[in-house]
Every structure is written in C-alpha cells, then in structure tokens.
Amino acid sequence: MIRKYTFGSQVPTDAVVQSLPAESGAVPYFTLSREENRVILTLSLLPDEILFGLGESVRGINKRGFRYRSWNSDVFNHTESTESLYGSHNLLVFFSPSRLFGVYLDDPGLVTWDLGYTRSDTAVITSENGDLDLYVLEESSLTELARAFRRLTGRSYLPPRWAFGYIQSRWGYASEQEIRAVTSEHRKRHIPLDAVCMDIDYMTDFRNFTWKPDAFPDLKGFSESLKKDHLRLVPIIDAGIPVAPGYAPYDTGKAAGLFCRKEDGSDFVAAVWPGRCVFPDFLREDARIWFGNLYRALLEAGIEGFWNDMNEPALFYSDEGIADAFARAEELRGGRVEYEAMWGLKDAFNGIANSMDDYRRFYHRIGGAAVRHDRVHNLYGAGMTRAAAEGFRRFDPSRRFLLFSRSSFIGAHRNGGIWQGDNFSWWSHLKMALQMLPNLNLCGFLYSGCDLGGFGCNVTEDLLERFLQLGVFTPLMRNHSALHTREQEIYRFSSWEMMRDTVGVRYALLPYLYSEFMKAALTDGMYFRPLAFDYPEDSRAVRVEDQLMLGEGCMIAPVLEQNAEGRYVYLPEDMLMVRFRSAADYDLVPLDKGDHRISLGLNEFPLFVRKNHPLLLCAGGESSETMDDRHFTVLCRMDRDVGYSLYRDDGENPDPDLARGLTDVALDTALLRASPVPGVAISDILL
Ligand code: MIG
Q1: pTM for the complete prediction?
Q2: Which atom number of ligand 1 is nearest to the Cα of residue 273?
Q3: Which residue in 214, 245, 314, 312 sits closest to 273, CA to CA?
Q4: Are strands 132-137 and 2-7 parallel, antiparallel or unpaired?
Q5: Between vectors from CA 53 to CA 66 and to CA 455, what angle results, nearest 5°?
Q6: d(CA 407, CA 270)
Q7: How confident is the model over 553-594, as pLDDT tens digits?
Q8: Which of 151, 254, 578, 584 has its CA 20 to 30 A from that of 444?
Q9: Which residues line ligand 1 (CB under 6 A)?
Q10: Ligand 1 centroid distance, CA of 96 (Å)
Q11: Residue 229 exposed, middle or buried by CB count within 10 Å (0-12, 13-18, 19+)
C-alpha cells in the first residue's frame, strides 16, 4: 500500500507515474514538525533496524549511522565523509523483524537525511524547501516494497544488448587513429570489446555536437567501419553550451530563449570546459525538445549510444563568483591578515566551483513562473537525460539506444542508466562500488557500473583485475580513467591475458546476465539486491555488506582487498560455487549453508548459484553480436528436476514482450548419474 501526503505546492518533477490522491490524516511512523519553510520528519529507530536506499551514496549498504544530503554534486573525491554525490534518490526503507516500510520524498531541493548521526536512535529527514510529495510505502516484503516503488515511479530503462559488452574508455582519446589503436589492440589480442567511449577531446573546443574535423575527417565512415567489426562509439555530451555567436546550438537556443536566466532576465553564464557557457533550461519541454534534436548530427553519423556529463550542473566559476572572491581579497589587502581571515580568504577562492551562491543566481521557467534553481537543483540532470532519451526516440522509435548519465534523480531511471562517477584507483572504492549497486537498483537504476580500474589515481594490475572481476557482473562494464593517470587499457599490463580471460567470463555469461537483467527490468524487480531481500529472517544475511544477490539465482562475493588470496563468504543456503579463471576454465564446488573461507588466486573469482537454479554458460566471444547464444553448458547443483526460463530478444526492440522472449530449459535428475561432480548436473544444450 502506498499513501501520499502533500506539503506546499511542489513543482512537477516527473518522478512519479501513478497518480494517487493525497491523504489528509497524519503521516504514519513520523513526528512532523516545521521550522520556517522546512518540513522535518522525526522517527525513533528500533535497535535492530536496518536502512536501505538513498541510491548513489557512500558508505554501507545499510545507510544507518551517517548524515547524507540530497544535493547533486560534482565531487571528485568520494570519501566516507562525502554527504552528496551526483544523484539524489530520496527513497529510504526501514527494515527490522517488527516493522517494514519505506518513505519517499518527491522533492527536487535539498533534503537532509540524519540517519542515527546526531542521535544513534533517531532518524531526522529534513526538506529544506518544504514543498514536496511524501509517500509512505508498506508491503509484506522488501522485494514487494521495491516492486511497489517501481510501479509508482515507472519501469527501468532498457539498454540495447550490445551495452552489456565490455566498453573501453579514457579521458584523452582525441582522434580516429587513437581509437583505432585501442580497438585493434583488443581485437589483435582477442580481448572482447563492444564499444569505445569518446570523452570531451573528440569535440572542437569542447563544443557539444561538434567533432574535430582533422581528427575525425569522416565520423560516419569511421563509425560504420567499426560497426562492421561489431564495435560502437559512445560519445560524451556535457550540459553547458558555450557562449559563441555563430555556433548553431548557441544561436538557436538563444533565439528561442531556452537558457537559464538571472533575475534581471539575462542569461546565466558560468565557465565549464568550453569556457563561458549558458545552461539549457532542461525543466522546460521546449528546451528539452530543442536539445534532444541536437543529438541528430551524431545519430546521423551512426552513433547509437551516449554518456551525459557535468549535468548537476557542474560550474567551474561564474564572473560573479570570481568578483566576490576578489572583493574578499581586496578587503584584506594591505592589512595584517590573521589566521581566521587567511582561512576565509582561502575558502573564498576554493569555494568558487559549484557554489551555492551560483545555484541561487539563476532561474528556470516552470509553467510560466520563474523558479530559482536551488529549489529544483536535483532535477537538472534528469531533465538532460529525458531530453536525450526523447530525442533518440524521435530519431528512431524502432530501437533502443545506450544512454548513461552522471547526474540523476528518481524518474531518470526510466530514460537512462548512470555510471557511479569519479572514483579512484583505490581498493576501498571497489567496495564502495559494490555497496552502492543494490541501493541504486532499489531506486530504479538497474543499468549501472563504476569506472573499472578507478577514474582518478594510478591503478595497479591486481586492482584492475579485481575491479574487472566485479565488472563481469555489473550491467555497465566500462574501464575508464582520467587524463594524466596511468594508462589503464587491459593490454598495457603484463598480465593482460589474465584480464582478457576475466572479460571472457562476462561474454560466456552475457546471455544469462542479459536474461536476468531484462527479467528484472520487465517485472519491476532488482538485478542486484542486498541479501536481506532473499533471506529476511536470517540475522546474519541481513547484515552482509560485501556480497550481493544477483538475479533470481546467484550471489556474488568479490575479493575487495589487496594481496588477499581469498576471502570469507557467508552462504545463507546451500549453493554451487563456480570459481572462474576463464570462460572455459572453472571449478565446480558445492558448498553448504554457513561460513566458508574460499581461496581465490588473483586470476580467480567466484559466482555462487543457488541449489536447484541452473546457470547457463555459452562459449563466449569477442563481441556481443558475434556470440553463439544457442549452445549452452548448463550447470546446476540439484536434488530435484529443475527449470530455467532464458529471456532472449533482438537486443534492440524498445517494447519487448517478456513472455515471447522466454525459452524454457529443463534439467532432469537423471543427469546427476553421469556427473563428475556429485550432486551437480552438467549438460550441453541447444536452444
Ligand atoms: O571535469 O570529460 O565524470 O568521467 O572523463 C571532468 C572529462 C569532466 C567528469 C566525468 C569523467 C570524464 C571527465 N568529466
């Protein structure tokens, strides 16, 4: 059951797709108070209560014990103290043996989540705007609660099937030759690859929808020739449009008055990569249509996928911000600067980027009224995602396009995926990526993954290998790194063959993982889940922070520490461990419910499969398009006859029919007689 409560008058956020009548009674569970405009919800936490949700955020799967802020931020350094990342996902689920409910704030402004931070036994949720729709969700299980929330907010985005292939990316690829060198190194060494991302350096002067004519003399010819080799280009698009008369996106947007404005009616200008930029008012439909149509130039060049960046929006500086900082400096010039003033001076300059002052300087037009940006800040990236997705649909309604964004808001999960932003080549960030994934799924973002190997800092071979071992299972499997960091393509390393074999496992599992993803998306389910969803009564399982359920029948437990030759794993039920070294080389080890120490050399990683759930492996391949997805090896630890329904489709139909895509696989216990591994059926099938 979902109940809705309305406070003030909320601008339409497009997050919710079901219209529910607002209740008039008191909000259950919470004590409500108001302070100026703020709406404050307070609740006593039960001693054993676990909190799930808040999608993209740092720390554990269980969000209890910290303070988070919903405020979409361009943050380069993700630490345990980082209160905001790029997306705001205002769903929180309270789970304990004695109560289960969720609360969702459809609120595009700043929301603070004090979850046992100020007082360990109290949660305080504060909406700064005080204009919001509040939903309270009650269902019989975590799984049903997640499903109800997805029905409320709409079906998750479906990427094309090729988007489940391995993607190579790096900030710095600047020409056709450089990209060809990357693709040919992969093909030459048989490292599977489906796509290469183009970062900002492909553009002329970082201008959206342009490409450097010398570096890409025939982008269409280039993309077509890559496609013959089953490879695709995925260019980046940033939010800002440079102030450059003569540059068509600026001229047309300016003529139609589609940019965000200051109070005096002039366009708000701030610098990002292309220099001084204006910002499309993505909260307006006409601006979204105009921006979505700009993708055409690239779509016509054969591009089928994009990533949208800097859409919090990230602001390097505004003229006003610089002037304020200098004014502060002027005040102090000549005098004796005491330490407090010195720190203030430093802060004045350090705080120039992404400043709250700038976010208060501009306005959106919503329903004819001017709305100051800070009140609706968290909607901006979602508006850009929507603009792009709708533009693709207008361009070609007959297929799916790849789209993933940095900034997001609930609702954007219907239009695109997200990547987990600028992580570092740190072991702790491998764990952080894992812990974020189930909460992203809960909030609707199924197509996601982190920058494998880490974006900032210099990776080491072992860390990249362990990142790839997680990436084998994440829907978005992309190796990405920042300019000036150590080169991170697999072939740069002496142990590239080990990494190639790891990516090979992804391709052997691709039809199965795609099936699990599509079934989850099409039934409003979750691809990754905390163990609590499947074993709510197992007090050990509900607190597991370094293992995830995957699809209907699997569990992952990657190695997250350097120099560890294995790890402890908790099995909430009897499972089959498949310890992979490559697509063709793996051990099958039945393990019973309980604790296990698993030995895992650097080249090894496990997948745990529930008893009586079949796992399908194909022979793999070097691209998702050239794989044989009719011949499979089926593996199953079983003690009865079992079945699995494999979902397959053409990988691009935008309106897939779940029932029509399913093929049933049946395994008979008779198979166990011939098996070399007691209790485990191994069977080759043709579908
Ligand atoms: O200010 O386009 O998160 O993936 O490589 C940095 C350059 C801008 C941030 C993105 C990152 C991308 C980078 N971008």
Answers
A1: 0.98
A2: 1
A3: 314
A4: antiparallel
A5: 80
A6: 18
A7: 999 999 999 999 999 999 999 999 999 999 999 999 999 999
A8: 578
A9: 171, 199-200, 236, 309-310, 406, 421-422, 455, 480
A10: 40
A11: middle
